[in-house]
Structures are given as structure tokens and as C-alpha cells.
Amino acid sequence: MPDSQLIEIEKLKSPKGTFLLGHLPQFNTYNKHQVLERWVEECGELFKIHFVGKEFVVSANPDFNNKMLRLRPESFKRFSKIDEILKEMGVDGVFNAEGDKWKRHRKPTAEALSVKNVNTFYPIIFDKTKSILEKFKNYSQQKTVVDVQKEFMAFTIDITTEIAFGHKLDTINNKSNSFQKHLEVIFPMINERVTAPIPIWRYFKRGKDKTLDNSLKSIEKVIYAFIDDAKKRIAENPKLKEQPSNFLEALLVENNEVNFTDKEIYGNVFTMLLAGEDTTSNSLSWIMFYLAQHPEIVIKVREEARTLYSGDIPNDYKYIDGLKYANAVTQEAMRLKPTTPQLYLESNEDVIINNLCIPKGTSIILQNKVAQTQDHHFSNPDSFIPERWLAGGCPMHENHAPNVIRAFGGGARYCPGMHLAKTEMIVLISTLCKHFDFKLEVKPETIRERFEFTMYPENLKVTFVPVVSE
Ligand code: HEM
User: Which residue in 50, 232, 302, 432 has its CB near the most CB atoms, within 10 A?
Assistant: First the structure.
């Protein structure tokens, strides 16, 4: 390609900022994702920003973003700061590993979360769905206004903890557990530290840094005790080598081949909790945000559930494939409200993508959400229309670009928990629609996007109205 066609980063546009601090003061709000979206409106799909001299490229171009995601692990990695912060917290797992080390971590993680294993874990999902259904039945009898985000969080916490290391919690029924309280301290602090311009905690420990250290120690103690127990169980019961009953056992069995240290096993179990809880529960909350405003869609999910399975809950994994409309509902909610609206990458080498010269060490923010609601990618892009996800389902298909959806990431590092997450969401949504209508108890415009560790609907309050069974 002639050099004259190449674009240097310094030639990219930039939103208005201050000379010394750059764009930091504007970015340093709690809803960073919305600041980025505003800048995309102001500067277009590709621009640069700087925080006190440190430069970042921001891309909202789906083609550009897909290419970068696919060039991992060789040409791109996650922001090195993510690894730095997680390692400092003692976490060394698949999310922050890079290069060959990442390949070593990825294989057993992906296998443990494979379709075959999600099938094995299905009884856990079934039990927890039953448990939360009973709770919602009580709420509906008492006409309780439900903070669904909190309830869905309890649902995914109980499932993820049991699948990750066989720890049976009952957060759904408010059985208090200090384990979860510690995680609630840790997760937001990871986000805060990854996006902090200055690592204050390394020079001076504030109250919240001390609380974090304390929570990390407690979690470590619990997980290491589980590692010891699982080792003993496997030694006593060789059958578990063929059919491990949770992720931890699967890692220990894999250990013969992959040879993880206990610290790496701890890192991966922790990563599973970190990656699997908020993402899934917040996606469920966004689904509820739309269902509570679209009773006609609830009826369609219900019809599908009544046609497909007879009991309260799909009692076998085999039903999941058939729940196509419930699946379309989850996909549509994730298109409009992805819980991870942006991803952070860094180049490992000099690369040219779509004429842009990206030198080694460039930090790039992939803004994926904007493209998911653009009218050249989707007809009627701001409307909640699950039918667009059904093959041959509607005229929406003339303008439908699923390849721009990056809610689960992309390339070799796409989310390995996607299948598990979809199964949890489809089962719960189908079950709830079979039993209830949903009434939004607040005005939709008061429900705001809030980004902490992931993006969730703030102030979502719903009542559950029982439907008469046919
Ligand atoms: C709706 C729910 C979920 C969403 C939206 C989601 C989203 C994502 C995204 C965007 C990434 C980054 C992908 C990339 O860099 O290309 C990711 C990575 C990851 N997710 Fe998920 N996730 C969800 C559920 C889960 C669950 C249930 C688990 C496991 C229990 C899980 C485990 C992981 C792991 C281990 C990674 C790191 C993969 C790697 O670096 O190779 N996720 N997820």
C-alpha cells in the first residue's frame, strides 16, 4: 500500500480536552461508557484521547474492532494494566494471561464450559431456577415490589459458585454468606483500579483498600480449602477423573496435562466467579427491563414455553434448543444493552489495520455498543424486536448485521462462558414468562444505565403478577 494512504494516530481527531489533563476530567465520571458514546457522536468512529499525556485510540468501527479481536493473542492483548491489577490481587487466570500462557489456561477453561459440560451442570441451573421461581411466587402473592437486579444477582451467584468449585450457597433465599459479601467488595474495586489514573493504593492504603485486602484474604482462604478438599476427593474417587462434577475438579484432572500450580487454579476459579456473575445477572435485568414494557412479547415467550414443556421449568437440557423465541429475546436485549459495552486492548507489535498505523504498545478502547444500534446495521435499531433474530422471521432481515454484535467479545478470546450464560438466561426467562406478567413500578425514563464492573439498569423495580395456568 502506498505510504500516502496510511494514517498516523497523531492525525486522528480528538474531542475537546484540556492541555495538561487531557480528557481525564470528563472521563472520570462513574458512567465512562456514556462519555465514550458522546465522543463517538462528536468525532466519528475513530479518534484519540489522552489522560495526562497517556494516549488512547478509540474505535467504534465494527470491522476495525473485529479485525483487532481476531489478531489475538499474537498482535493484540488486553490492556497490560488489567493483568497488573489482577496479579497484584493474587489473580493469575485465563482472563489476564497472555500469549502461550493464555493458550495453556484457555484450553481447560473452554473445555470445562463446553456444551457437554453445561449439559452436566443443568441440574444446578434447574434447582436454582426452581428456588427463585418459588421466591417470586411468594413475592407475587404479597404484591412485593422486586429489585430484580439484586434477585438475579443471587441466582447467578448461586449457580456460578456451585459450578466453579462445588460450593452450595443459598443467596437466593437470603442465607447470609460472607463469601458473597467479600466478592461484592472486590469486583467494583477491580474496575476502579483498572481505570484509576494514579495507583494511590500503592503509596497510601485508604479504608477501602484495607477492606479489599481483607476480603481478598478471606476469599483466598475459602478457595484454597476447596482446592485441598477436591484433591482428596479425586484421590479417593477415581471416577471423578472421567466425570468431574465442577470446574475446580476439571482443572485438577486437567492438571496432569496442563500442570497448573495451586495459585493458577485459584486464579482460574476466581476468574470464573468474576466473569460469570454480574455479566449474566445484569443481562437478565436488561431482559426484564424490556419484558416489563412489552406484555405482547411476554405472551409469545409464554406460548412457546406452554407448547414445548409441561412442568413449571424445562426439566431437561434438551429443551434449550427449542426455546427459540426466549433465545431471540435474550439476543435482542444484549444487542441494545450489552453489559460490556467496551473492551480494552493493547498492541504487541506494529500493525496496520484499515490503513491506520498502530505502533507496538498502543492502547485501544473498542467501543462496541454504538454499532449495535446503528440504522445501517439494523432496521428500526432502537426498538426491541426479538423477531429479527428468528430465521426468516420478519422483514427486519433485509437489514440485519449480527456480526457487529460483540456482547461476548470476539476472536479466539471470545467469552467461553457464553453457552452457560445463554442457558441460564433462556431457562429463567422462559420459566418466569410461563408464570407471570411483569409490571414496571417506576417510569422507564428513570431507569438509567449504570456502569460499575459491568453495565446494569439502575432503579429497575418490577412486580410479578401470576398468570392463570391453562
Ligand atoms: C451474559 C453473560 C456474559 C457476558 C455478556 C460475557 C461477556 C464477556 C466478554 C465481552 C468477554 C471478553 C471477550 C473478549 O475479550 O473477546 C468475556 C470473557 C470471559 N468470560 Fe464471559 N460473559 C458472560 C458470562 C460468562 C460466564 C457465565 C462465564 C463463566 C462462568 C464467563 C467466563 C469468561 C471468561 C473465563 C473470559 C475470559 C476469556 C479469555 O480471556 O480467553 N463469562 N466475557
Answer: 432
Nearest Cα residue to 79 out of 344, 274, 308? 344
Residue 339 grid coordinates: 453489559
Residues in the chain, pLDDT under 50: none
What pLDDT score was predicted for residue 254?
A: 72
Ligand 1: atom nearest CA of 109 is 35
| Cα dihedral sign, 66-70-72-76 | negative
In a 10 Å sphere around its CB, with 0-12 CB exposed, 13-18 middle and 19+ buried, how is residue 345 labelled? buried
Distance CA 255, CA 240 (A): 13
The bridge status of strand 342-347 relative to strand 351-353 is: unpaired
Q: Could you tell me the CATH number of the domain that includes residue 331? A: 1.10.630.10
| Residue ranges of E strands in 104-232 | 146-147
Q: Return the ∠ at Cα 440 (arms to 451 and 375), rounded to 5°.
A: 60
Question: In this predicted model, what pLDDT tens digit does every residue of 74-114 receive, in sequence order?
Answer: 999 999 999 999 999 999 999 999 999 999 999 989 988 88
Tell me the pairing of strands 46-51 and 54-59: antiparallel
Cα(442)–Cα(378) distance, integer angstroms = 29
* Largest distance between two CA atoms of the chain: 71
Q: Rounded to the nearest 5°, which phi and psi values hold at 312?
A: -70, -35
Ligand 1 close to Cβ of residue 269 (< 6 A) = no
C-alpha cell at 123: 441440574
**Does the C-beta of 343 come closer than 6 Å to ligand 1?**
yes
- Taking the centre of ligand 1 as the mean of its atom positions, its distance from the CA of residue 135, in whole angstroms, is 28
> How far is Cα 202 from Cα 56, in angstroms, rounded to an integer?
24
Compute the half-sphere exposure of residue 159: CA atoms within 13 Å on the CB side of its CA. Answer: 33
24: CA distance to ligand 1 center in Å? Answer: 28
Of 72, 408, 419, which is best to mutate to test ligand 1, by the most ligand atoms within 8 angstroms of its C-beta?
408
- What is 190-217 written as a DSSP string? HHHHHT-SS-GGGT---HHHHHHHHHHH
| 408 CB near ligand 1 (under 6 Å) | yes
The residue assigned the cell 414496571 is 440
Close Cβ partners of 416 (under 8 Å, ≥ 6 residues apart): 94, 106, 109, 110, 113
What is the rounded distance in angstroms from the CA atom of residue 78 to the CA atom of residue 95? Answer: 9
Domain count, the chain: 1
State yes or no: cis peptide before 73, omega within 30 of 0. yes
Domain that holds residue 17: 3-466
